[in-house]
Design goal:
The complex is a heterodimer. Chain A has helices at 14-24, 37-42, 78-83, 91-98, 103-108, 111-117, 123-130, 148-151, 227-236, 240-253, 260-281, and strands at residues 7-9, 28-31, 50-53, 63-66, 69-72, 134-139, 142-147, 152-154, 157-158, 165-171, 179-185, 195-203, 209-217, 224-225. Chain A is of the alpha+beta class. The N and C termini of chain A lie far apart (49 Å). Chain B has a 7-stranded mixed sheet, sandwiched between helices. In chain B, strands 7-15-14-13-8-26 form a 6-stranded mixed sheet. The termini of chain B are far apart. The chains are: A alpha+beta, B alpha+beta. The interface between A and B is medium-sized, with 22 and 27 residues.
Chain lengths: 282, 733
């Protein structure tokens, strides 16, 4: 469990970090909390030529509101999200963070690291997909904004270019009456999910669904939106009938590679549980 | 002054909780070099060559060794009773010669100035391998035309072990009910939190080699390392430092235990090897993997008449130091605490291209208890009897002791010497509140309650020696050849000495760490240290007190091992929609004769029960169809965390024992033996009709869902009631 050789740098600023990334070429990696990258190094599953350590860079762990949008710096720790008083649909983000690993992992691991690592079973990518997150990516070449839906390309693969860093995660304001819930089943506390569901919905006084988002983890090559489930819920409402239709649709449209029968069934159960919780709180 | 029977704090705790304990990774010798093993990446292949050139050329690399560079010897079997004729055909060499037989088999060693350079260079060692078809699992290894693991072992059948008592055919012919089940135990492993490690140093002047990192069986390992390296036993010194768990796997003699001192001698400088977790999960002994076909014949009133069992036990690719013990021990443990008229057992030890199988806490006993107790619950369901009532009607009674099963003219009988099994069982039920739990179960869907009972072999001989010496400062030093694996044996031996000498505990020091300091010892395994070494210490201390002088020595011989009774009750809740099982409560009872340190004993019982609960619900070492292991980290090999474990209640039974001076029996494994069976029975009872299909561990969410789906496709499961486990294949007569 000794990593292969690599060059290590700890830049003083984001600009310096981006410069180092650009100079080092395609085999460089940013190191933040290290909760996925360091074990991968120890098992020699990752062999970067350079590690650019941004873990202590100031100003990248901001949690703030801008024009109603929630703006998160890439170094926001999972434990910070877990403890943040996020209401409405954003509550699902705090719930998702609470499922990640164990407390020492959550104290170190970062939102940017989780997104860039893009484990299909990870919680935050699915949660951010459900919340229409937009990622701000920067390199020396400039900055660009990318919706989370366009960011994930496959297992452990993203749209991030070799010289780019995630510098911000922006969550647009969901409808004011929206509620969110995150449900997951894992064999042990802290394990990667067998399946996880991030769901949010806004309902009017008559029980009609005005807005909804359902995203799934661990049942596809990337975190998945479940448009069929969202449509079923929007059509049938947040009653038992609508919940059952959404659950069945999510089970049908997910794409589990392993234990497919079981995981589809599990997705249906978790969608039901998340939506029932939203209904209770709505 | 009573010291035996008190909860004296563990002597090792102060260092452990302050982080001051010294583990083998903390042992550093001046000028030490670091070793990395190159292991086979495939399960079965012809090894044509080991290309070391590129690795040797790396900066910092001191040596690269392969089979031709080390003695052509095999690691022998430590336990004479598990060294059946023919087992020596499958012993393991120090490094693979000509053929590799499992993923993880050591093929070469790289020694370098630091562990990073060693691991870098190890990647450059080129193994020229010609892949061969593998006997990937038990079924594959026993199929016609299966690839042979060792050319000398036809059909991969290493041993066929049999035990027979009474007229089985007659008993089955007269039965009211016969239930037959096929039960599967997964491959599991002890996985101590501290992986293995060794530091060796050779002193050129004296010609002696010292090895730090020993555990469990130091003296046998010292003699065997010496024999394999052509040294005198006195030239090898083994030292035990703090040990982070053993559970049967750690401390046995593995190839590394011989290779590391060899390297220290050959290189003329100290050498350090620390195993990492990925290595540990393929290199250290695995355990448990067995398939049993068990058939039980019962009378209409629930009387247990007879059973037949046919077991296939995965031995892995080599026979290691414990011989065929994992296939042998079920023979002595399948009958359990019940008064059978007859039984017939056939247990096969089968070679496969997987990591060799050795012992893990409660070896063979845990497997036997699971298969028997699981099928007993099916019998109870078929007869409409409460599972506890079925056991109650069949437990051997106190007045039947000593009880023996005659095993024919060629085998010694199986003898249970002392004990009151029904009293122990009733104590468990009473302390757990069995009747109340069944009432609660009837009212709460998804709740399951399971019980299991067993007898467990412990206190295995042949003997231990101890010396007690009076020091000038008024303290006493006890020397005994045991191993401290975290179980607290040093505290227990100190309590025994203090009581016999009539001095406070603080004045006793126990020394067991160093083969230079302690003349002999069989070591710590099979729940034997308190029984065998404890009695030796008691005799030596008594002698010193009676005879005076500076020093007394005693030898305690344990001719026959003890069987002691244990039982467990487990409460689980099952989420029928997801299949997730939560262990809610576990109660374990065990008869130790007399508890020397009840707090330590409870710790042993609860710790072992935790491992047993995880064995039932979480732990499995899966392989793919090419015999590639799939669990290479603790993310995949699911040890339990505090979040998965329930409150564990311990019931210490002290039925007097006259067979040894202290009146003690072992307790190190008891918590494990009954736990998987009790948890599995609890899950089965929670599943109602679907529970009859509980025949395989671990009971993961997908497996539990599959059982529910098979019993009631598409419908929500029925709430379970007590004893609601009607058998599917049970044949009523």
């Amino acid at each position: 469990v000794k990593p292969p050789p690599f060059a290590y740098a700890r830049p003083e600023s984001l600009e310096e970090a981006l410069t180092l990334l650009a100079e080092a070429g395609s085999e460089a990696k940013l190191l933040a909390g290290g909760q996925s990258l360091v074990p991968a190094l120890a098992y020699r599953l990752a062999r970067p030529s350079h590690l650019v350590d941004i873990d202590r860079l100031p100003g990248l762990d901001r949690v703030g509101l801008e024009d109603g949008a929630l703006v998160l710096g890439p170094l926001v720790r999972h434990a910070t999200l877990e403890r943040a008083r996020l209401g409405g649909a954003w509550a699902l983000l705090a719930e998702a963070a609470a499922h990640i690993g164990h407390l020492p992992i959550r104290l170190r691991g970062t939102i940017g690291g989780s997104l860039a690592h893009a484990d299909p079973a990870a919680e935050l990518p699915a949660a951010l997909l459900a919340l229409d997150a937009e990622l701000v990516l920067r390199s020396l070449r400039g900055a660009r904004r990318l919706p989370a839906a366009e960011f994930f390309a496959g297992p452990f693969t993203t749209a991030l270019a070799a010289d780019e860093a995630i510098v911000e995660v922006r969550l647009p304001p969901p409808p004011g009456v929206a509620r969110g819930a995150f449900e997951e089943l894992a064999p042990r506390a802290g394990d990667f999910a067998l399946a996880a569901v991030a769901a949010a919905a806004a309902v009017d006084g008559a029980g009609r669904v005005l807005w909804t988002r359902i995203a799934l983890a661990a049942v596809g090559a990337t975190p998945l939106r479940a448009p069929g489930a969202e449509a079923a819920l929007a059509g049938a409402g947040l009653g038992e009938e609508g919940i059952a239709a959404a659950a069945a649709a999510a089970a049908a449209e997910c794409e589990p590679a392993l234990e497919a029968g079981y995981r589809r069934e599990l997705v249906a159960v978790l969608v039901e549980r998340a939506l029932r919780r939203i209904r209770r709180e709505a | 002054m009573r010291i035996i029977g008190t909860d004296a704090p563990r002597a090792a705790d102060r260092e452990l909780v302050r982080g001051a304990a010294r583990y083998v990774a903390d042992v550093d010798r001046p000028g030490q070099a670091h070793v990395r093993a190159v292991r086979s990446p495939v399960a079965h292949a012809r090894l044509h060559a080991v290309g070391a050139g590129a690795a040797r050329a790396q900066p910092g690399v001191l040596a690269v060794l392969a089979a031709p560079d080390v003695p052509d010897v095999r690691i022998p079997i430590r336990l004479p009773f598990a060294a059946l004729p023919g087992a020596e055909r499958a012993l393991q060499p120090l490094l693979a010669r000509e053929v590799v037989r499992y993923v993880g088999e050591p093929v070469a060693l790289v020694v370098a100035e630091d562990p990073y350079a060693a691991e870098d260079a190890a990647e450059l060692v080129e193994l020229e391998l010609e892949p061969l078809a593998a006997a990937a699992d038990l079924a594959g290894a026993t199929a016609a035309g299966a690839p042979l693991v060792h050319a000398g072992v036809a059909g991969n059948l290493l041993a066929r072990l049999e035990a027979r008592h009474g007229d089985v055919e007659a008993a089955f012919a007269g039965a009211h009910l016969v239930v037959r089940r096929r039960l599967t135990l997964p491959r599991q492993t002890a996985a101590p939190l501290e992986p293995r490690g060794l530091v060796a140093e050779h002193d050129r002047r004296s010609g002696r080699v010292t090895v730090w990192g020993a555990a469990k069986v130091k003296h046998w390992n010292r003699a065997t390392i010496a024999a394999l390296l052509g040294l005198e036993p006195e030239q090898v010194r083994l030292v035990e430092v703090a040990v982070g768990g053993g559970f049967g796997a750690r401390g046995e003699l593995y190839p590394e235990d011989v290779l590391v001192p060899l390297l220290a001698i050959e290189l003329g400088r100290p050498v350090k090897w620390l195993e990492d977790r990925a290595e540990h999960l393929v290199a250290a002994n695995h355990a448990r993997e067995q398939v049993h076909e068990l058939e039980i014949a019962a009378a209409r009133d629930g009387g247990l008449l007879a059973f037949r069992d046919r077991a296939r036990c995965d031995q892995g690719a080599y026979v290691r130091t414990q011989g065929v013990l994992p296939a042998l021990l079920p023979l002595y443990h399948l009958p359990g605490p019940y008064a059978w008229e007859a039984f017939a057992i056939e247990s096969q030890a089968v070679l496969t291209h997987r990591t060799p199988v050795g012992t893990y806490r409660g070896p063979g006993m845990t497997e036997a208890a699971f298969v028997r107790e699981r099928v007993l619950d099916v019998v109870a369901g078929e007869l409409g009897l409460d599972p506890a009532e079925l056991r109650r009607r069949n437990l051997i009674r106190a007045e039947q002791m000593p009880f023996s099963f005659d095993l024919g003219p060629e085998a010694p009988p199986l003898v249970y010497g002392e004990g009151d099994f029904p009293a122990g069982f009733e104590r468990l039920l009473a302390e757990a509140g069995y009747e109340e739990l069944r009432a609660e179960q009837a009212a709460r869907a998804g709740l399951g309650v399971g019980v299991a009972a067993a007898v467990e072999l412990g206190g295995v001989g042949p003997f231990e020696e101890a010396t007690v010496s009076a020091e000038p400062d008024g303290t006493f030093v006890v020397r005994a050849g045991v191993g401290s694996l975290g179980q607290g044996v040093e505290t227990v031996l100190a309590q025994i000495a203090a009581e016999e000498l009539g001095v406070p505990l603080e004045r006793i020091a126990v020394r067991h760490h160093d083969t230079d300091d302690v003349a002999s010892g069989f070591g710590s395994f099979a729940s034997r240290s308190t029984v065998v070494a404890g009695n030796a210490v008691a005799l030596a201390a008594r002698k010193l007190r009676e005879q005076g002088g500076r020093r007394a020595h005693a030898r305690y011989e344990q001719e026959h091992p003890f069987f002691s009774f244990g039982a467990a009750l487990s409460v689980v809740s099952v989420d029928a929609a997801t299949g997730l099982v939560r262990a809610e409560r576990h109660v374990v009872a065990h008869d130790v004769g007399r508890a020397v340190n009840p707090a330590l004993l409870r710790g042993q019982l609860a710790g072992a029960a935790a491992q047993g609960i995880a064995a039932a619900l979480l732990e499995e070492l899966p392989y793919d169809e090419n015999a590639q292991p799939l669990a290479l980290s603790l993310a995949d090999y699911r040890l339990p965390t505090a979040a998965e474990l329930p409150e564990i209640q311990t019931v210490v039974v002290e039925h007097p024992v006259t067979g040894n001076p202290l009146g003690v029996k072992g307790g190190g494994e008891a918590g494990m033996v009954t736990a998987p069976a009790a948890v599995a029975n609890a899950v089965a009872s929670a599943l109602g009709a679907a529970g009859a299909g509980v025949d395989r561990l671990p009971l993961t969410p997908p497996r539990v869902r599959a059982l529910l789906r098979a019993a009631a496709p598409g419908r929500p499961p029925e709430p379970a009631g007590p004893g609601a486990a009607p058998g599917i294949s049970g044949a009523r007569r």
